[in-house]
Amino acid sequence: MNTTETLLWVVIPYVCLAVFVLGHVWRYRYDKFGWTTRSSQLYESRLLRWASPLFHFGILAVFLGHVMGLGVPKSWTEAVGISAEAYHVMAVGIGAIAGLCTLVGMVLLIYRRRTVGPVFRATTRMDKLMYLVLAVVIFLGLWNTVAGSVLNLGGYYDYRDGVSVWFRSIFLFQPHPELMAAAPLGFQLHGMAAMLLFALWPFTRLVHVFSAPVFYLWRPYVVYRSRSDRYGARAARPGWERVDRPQKVR
Amino acid sequence: MRVMAQMSMVMNLDKCIGCHTCSVTCKQAWTNRTGTEYVWFNNVETRPGQGYPRTYEDQEKWEGGWTLTKNGRLRLKAGGRLKNLMTIFASPKQPSIDEYYEPWTYDYENLTNAPLQEHTPVARPKSLLSGQDMNVTWSANWDDDLGGSPALAAADPVLAKISDKVKLEFEQTFMFYLPRICEHCLNPSCAASCPSGAIYKRSEDGIVLVDQDACRGWRKCVTGCPYKKVYFNHRTGKAEKCTFCFPRIEVGLPTVCSETCVGRLRYIGLVLYDADRVLEAASVTDERELLASQRSVFLDPNDPAVVREAEAAGIPRDWVEAAQRSPIWALINKYEVALPLHPEYRTMPMVWYIPPLSPVVDVVAETGEDAEDPGNLFAAIDTLRIPVEYLAELFTAGDTVPVTAVLKRLAAMRSYMRDLNMGRDADASIPASVGMDEASMYEMYRLLALAKYDERYVIPSAHAEQAHGLEELATECSLDYDGGPGMGGSGPFGEGSGVNDPIAVENFHMLRQRQTTDTVADPSTRKARVNLLSWDGKGAPAGLFPPRSGTDGPHLRDPEGPSGETQPLPAGGSVPGPAGTGTEPTGTPPTGTPPTGPARDDDAGAGR
Ligand code: HEM
Ligand code: SF4
Ligand code: SF4
Predict the structure, then answer these.
(1) What keywords appear on the UniProt entry (chain B) (predicted)?
(2) How many contacts does A have with B, using Cβ atoms within 8 A?
């Protein structure tokens, strides 16, 4: 384990992940109002109608793929009887399709951002930086899948024995930087760019991902907010403390 | 029975002169900011006409509101919950800016800066969205007063529901104005469509609000509202809607649109209703039953049982009393002259309308007959199919019977009162012919025609003990919020990011640094505004006029003007604080940056 390895695959990841977590906490506290998708559909929807679902469904599939590939140890999938080959074919197949959707969607989104006047005018510097890094990450990821696993450029590399183990080791606080150091350059670059993206994440519009409104499926349609929701929001002024009286629960 | 109180409004359309004062003052108070240029919480449409946004009433196209499923349950017309989430990445039914209009300003500078040339320089229209030159081809009231008819009015979705033959006669017969605000529905589909649950109904007074901190910009509420009264602020990425001027209502003042209404045609008051019965009432099978079913949800505030239940539900005594004096209750359930707008959307709207009799009166008058004679009027109501059918499409899902009944009551009142005004004997048979007695007809006349201020607006103020439950009451220290003074402005993540200012701070204290601009297009001055929300008509609100250069030195800018009513301005626009140009501690005298001439907006922007 030499210094460069440690710096690249231990220090930087931890710093980035710390920025990711703390950044979100800070952003949420400081900037609830800025926590939004900043939808640009009002300006333009013909392109968005295709680009945004393509990109989002793609990236969500890609995300699930990463959860599987990085999160689930090879031994587990083998234990349930999925052979390495079957897994590989499935992962690469689905991954390539999802990746392609993401890429096409993203290219369309970026094209739209640049060419549609009002959308471009509503683009912040942070948006541009975010798109740059996001595009690099997505492109490198897709490159690894296609070049590494489909075309087999530079020999076969099973990331589930290398990158994945390193990734999990980070969260187990027993980092194995040597595994990353041994990975092909494409994977190294993808990983590094992803770390950079994580560090940027809380400061971009990407925060909207964390408010994905799944609870909508269960909550009552109409939300009421009553005064009792706010009791205790701040201390009562002296002499104005609330006298508790039985109140009918709404 | 679960009693809830609802703040609601009735508008008497006969009196609307289409002056748009309500729209303008509302805009001045609430939406004169970048990002809300196209947003009209209050708009006034000429009917027949396309409305705003264009053809919003065509729910086959826009899929707003609720619909009944085959098994009789209510479902959002745009689709169930799952579909709503699956279409979140690009909302399939959202009106684009073209359905509203592309906001613009003019390049006035060119008038003074243009070099000497053969032709007079012009101020070109510039899009506020793209900053480019644009052609102005549509705006909020492009078809005002039937402008462009019949070509434009023919696209009116309401007109489309009446047979073709009708259309042609129709343009010659009548026209009226329809002022619209958010309906503050009992069964709001905007709230139901919001994936984040950021739109809520206040249980104290039923006002429907968007929690700006919880809104995540999914923009589904825009689709959900059939009246298209939720707007997307394209700069902040958040939904905004009519607030029923809750900071005013809480202190007993009517909304800005009502206060400034030239025709004095708006009524505000409470209605008590049974919250347990709303869903059932909104789900009746026959659309034409919706008027009756909604009326049946309202509770008689004079019924002792209701009063008891209201008190048990925690509704304060004075609110119940206000509900008893409510003009809304009287107009809807006692005189039965107010009707809901498009009950067929099944949202149980709470801004109701007294349909206009004037089209009928006009026709009778044109024929040279006596337009105040009950016989003539009644006959005209019965024979003038077109206006009545049109009104029915607006107010009763196409059922002409209730509309006719209301128009006859209005006609009867007109005739009955003429006798009185002419010093003749009152004719008791006239009220009787529309099922009223003389006393109630006279009372109705008082309410409709004389309409004294305190009869039109019966608004109990919010209770101190509820203060924390109501949004941000002005009684709290205005600086006492997360982040505190010096925050605000626009954060590093784009427009409107960072801690936002509570409305109480923004409106009641009229932050000085926001009120000195004459450009609307420059985002760096986006927070500059004149605010009429708390203007009581005396003096001039700060920032209404640009500071006079030269005479207006810092020495004149003491915080209290001679009358104590005007708020002097620091000419620097906003005073850059440590964290951008944010909320200056109110109450501190302005620091009196000396006027710097036309460049002042730039130094305001520098801090952002
Ligand atoms: C998990 C659930 C997610 C939801 C519900 C969601 C929803 C949305 C919505 C509603 C928009 C606004 C589209 C518009 O009207 O302009 C948007 C934009 C965007 N989202 Fe997501 N998103 C999700 C996840 C993600 C993820 C995982 C990423 C990328 C890592 C992402 C990246 C973006 C980007 C880059 C835009 C801006 C598109 C543009 O250029 O306008 N989103 N998202
Ligand atoms: S009219 Fe108002 S309360 Fe009703 S659905 Fe629309 S925005 Fe919501
Ligand atoms: S201010 Fe009153 S009269 Fe004028 S348009 Fe508005 S509602 Fe009609």
Answers:
(1) 4Fe-4S, Electron transport, Iron, Iron-sulfur, Metal-binding, Oxidoreductase, Repeat, Transport
(2) 182
Q: Please, what's the largest Cα pairwise distance for chain A? A: 78
pLDDT, average across residues A206-214: 92
Pairing of strands B43-47, B176-180: antiparallel
CA angle A162, A167, A169 (to 5 degrees): 95
Q: Are B48 and B541 in contact, with CB atoms under 8 Å apart?
A: no
Q: Cα–Cα distances in Å, from B8 out to A14, A227, B14, B225, B332?
A: 56, 20, 19, 18, 11
Q: Does ligand 2 lie within 6 Å of residue B193's CB atom?
A: no
Find the angle CA(A4)-CA(A6)-CA(A9) to the nearest 5 degrees: 100
Contacts for B359 with CB less than 8 Å, ≥ 6 apart: B173, B174, B175, B176, B384, B387
A55 has a pLDDT exceeding 90? yes
- The identity of residue B168, as a single letter, is L
* Interchain contact, A230 vs B468, CB within 8 Å: yes
- Looking up tokens 């079957």 gives A86
List chain A residues with CB under 8 Å of B85. Answer: 213-214, 216-217
List the domain boundaries for chain B: 530-591
The pLDDT confidence band at residue B3, using thresholds 50, 70 and 90, is very high
Q: What is the pLDDT of residue B483?
A: 40
> B247 has which bridge partners?
none
H-assigned helices in B88-204? 109-113, 157-161, 164-173, 189-193
How far is Cα A102 from Cα A145, in angstroms, rounded to an integer? 14
B129-171 pLDDT, tens digit per residue, is 888 899 999 998 898 888 877 778 778 888 877 765 555 555 5
Annotated binding site of A for heme b: 56, 66, 190, 208
C-alpha to C-alpha distance for B233 and B241, rounded to whole angstroms: 10
* Angle (nearest 5°) at CA B456 between B453 and B460: 95
Sign of CA dihedral B592, B595, B601, B605: negative
B564-606 pLDDT tens trace: 333 333 333 333 333 333 333 333 333 433 333 333 333 333 3
- Cα of B348 vs centre of ligand 2, distance in Å, is 9
Contacts of residue B468 in chain A, CB cutoff 8 Å? 227, 230-231, 233-234
| Mean pLDDT over each residue of chain B, to the nearest integer | 79
Q: Which residues line ligand 1 (CB under 6 A)?
A: A 37, 39-41, 48, 52, 56, 59, 63, 109, 113, 206, 208-209, 212; B 88-89, 218
Within B332-489, residue ranges assigned H as helices are 358-366, 374-383, 385-395, 400-421, 429-433, 438-445, 453-456
d(CA A145, CA B280): 55
B559 is written with which tokens?
Answer: 């915080």
Helices (H), ranges, B31-108: 59-62, 81-86
Nearest-CA neighbor of B230 among B19, B10, B38? B38
Ligand 2 in reach of B414 Cβ (< 6 A) = no
User: In the CATH hierarchy, which top-level class contains the domain A3-217?
Assistant: mainly alpha
Contacts (Cβ under 8 Å, ≥6 apart) of A135: A106, A110
The residues, ordered by sequence, that sit 6+ positions from B424 with a Cβ below 8 Å of its Cβ are: none
Beta pairing class for A223-225 and B199-202: parallel
